[in-house]
Amino acid sequence: MLTVRAIDAGYGPATVVRGVSLDVPDGSIVALLGRNGAGKSTTLKTIMGLVRPRGGEIALDGVRIDGATPHAINRRGVAYVPEERRVFSHLSVEDHFTIARRAETPWTLERIFALFPKLEPLRARRARYLSGGEQQMLAIARALLTAPRLLLLDEPSQGLAPVIVDAVVESVRRMRSEGLSILLVEQDLAIALHLATHVYILESGELVYSGSSAELRQNAAVQAKYLGVG
Ligand SMILES: Nc1ncnc2c1ncn2[C@@H]1O[C@H](COP(=O)(O)OP(=O)(O)OP(=O)(O)O)[C@@H](O)[C@H]1O
Ligand SMILES: [Mg+2]
Predict the structure, then answer these.
(1) What are the E-state strand segments in 42-156?
(2) Residue span of the structural domain in which 64 resides
(3) Which residue has a Cα nearest atom 5 of ligand 1?
(4) Cα 46 to the chain's mean position, in Å?
(5) Which residue in 110, 127, 156, 200 is a FRET match for 220, CA 20 to 30 A apart?
(6) Strands 150-154 and 14-24, how do they pair?
């Protein structure tokens, strides 16, 4: 599905992601981990075309997408849910859906509300009056309505109450079981290991680890060295 090969990216004169390569196979969840400032969000933004790669290649099903606009990349089947969620405070839940919806999306409102039952009674509510968890669900739902095959999720559990985290985690599992491929940035190692089959770790903009979730679960040394666990 997604192949990233040796990308360099950054802001102004600063290169913050160096030589990063990763794969997201069809229908899988792959996690990208690393400490604050490691370059996780920059990697997602580069895949989405929001940051222009300075070198390397990004391809979707073998077709290059690096250099394309975010809009064109979205049309090719990639959707991005940023860390900051970026919902429109004055628009209702339903307004968000209306704006995002692509004719070809398989995600009917019925399916969206089956995934996020909490949103259904809130459909007329403006986003500014939603809780953080509800806003996160709205941000994911909006992304789904653009009919992606690959979803880039940046720290969906961040700042949420445990019970809401569980609901979001369950929704990610269900999206995968409905055929989506997901590249997940997570700070919470337990969540990443629970959801993902494969894990990459970034440190200071470079990939320092790649392995299966089962492998990383056993590897206390890597967890301690790069994730500050233990
Ligand atoms: N818009 C920007 N302009 C300049 N530098 C930036 C910008 N965004 C991020 N950076 C820098 O790039 C580096 C990587 O940031 P990035 O947001 O990709 O890290 P991250 O792994 O997502 O961190 P976090 O876990 O805190 O979200 C950091 O040093 C950060 O300060
Ligand atoms: Mg980030």
Answers:
(1) 55-60, 63-64, 78-81, 150-154
(2) 2-227
(3) 11
(4) 12
(5) 156
(6) unpaired
pTM reported for the whole predicted model:
0.96
Q: Which residue has the tokens 């990233």?
A: 4
Ligand 1 neighbours, Cβ below 6 Å, are 11, 16, 34, 36-42, 83
Q: How many domains, in total, are found in the chain?
A: 1
pLDDT in tens, 208-224: 999 999 999 999 999 99
Q: What is the DSSP string of 151-184?
A: EEEE-TTTT--HHHHHHHHHHHHHHHHTT-EEEE
Taking the C-alpha atoms of residue 29 and residue 197, their distance in angstroms, rounded to an integer, is 6
For residue 39, give the ligand nearest its CA: 1
Give per-residue pLDDT as tens, 118-161: 999 999 999 999 999 999 999 999 999 999 999 999 999 998 98
d(CA 113, CA 115): 5
CATH number at residue 20: 3.40.50.300
